[in-house]
Amino acid sequence: MGVEVTREAAGVAVSSPGGRLLVGRHAHDGRWATIGGSVEDAESPDDAAKREAREEVGLVLDSLHPLGRFADSPIYDVTYPDGIVVRYAVTMYATDRVDGGVDHRHDQATA
Q1: pTM for the complete prediction?
Q2: How many angstroms separate the CA atoms of 66 and 52, rounded?
Q3: Digits of tens for pLDDT over the chain (111 positions)?
Q4: Superfamily for 4-98?
Q5: How many Cβ atoms from other residues are within 10 Å of residue 72's Cβ?
Q6: Is residue 80 within 8 Å of 43, Cβ to Cβ?
Q7: Dihedral of the alpha carbons of 75, 64, 53, 83, in degrees to the nearest 10
Q8: Distances (CA, A) of 11 to 81, 88, 102
Q9: How many CB atoms lie within 10 A of CB 47?
């Protein structure tokens, strides 16, 4: 096992009016997940969730509803190819209000 690091992260469960959930496949390990990623310095978790949605699939989110902060479980641990293990503490949000649609041309979009 490599070096362990803890990072704050944010995610968002984007659902359609019909109840479908937007998920994507991680490039580094093939796992399915909701949109999300690390919170940058001087960034709030809700701003990070909105940024990740824009970067990953081109969605502009209108509003977010907090679901909770999740940590201390192996399901939030990611081992990267260089051997570094990152333990994420994830603040999750939900929304069904988006501007536009999923843009599959984004290099991070595999949904």
Answers
A1: 0.79
A2: 16
A3: 566 888 999 999 998 878 888 888 877 678 888 999 999 999 999 999 999 999 988 888 888 999 999 988 888 888 888 889 999 999 999 998 766 566 555 544 444
A4: Nucleoside Triphosphate Pyrophosphohydrolase (3.90.79.10)
A5: 7
A6: no
A7: -20
A8: 22, 11, 16
A9: 14
Total Cβ atoms within 10 A of residue 59: 24
| DSSP string of 9-59, one letter each residue | EEEEEEB-TTS-B--EE-TTT--EE-EEEEPPTT--HHHHHHHHHHHHH--
AA identity, residue 88: Y
> What type of residue sits at position 24?
G
| In contact, 35 and 53? CB cutoff 8 Å | yes
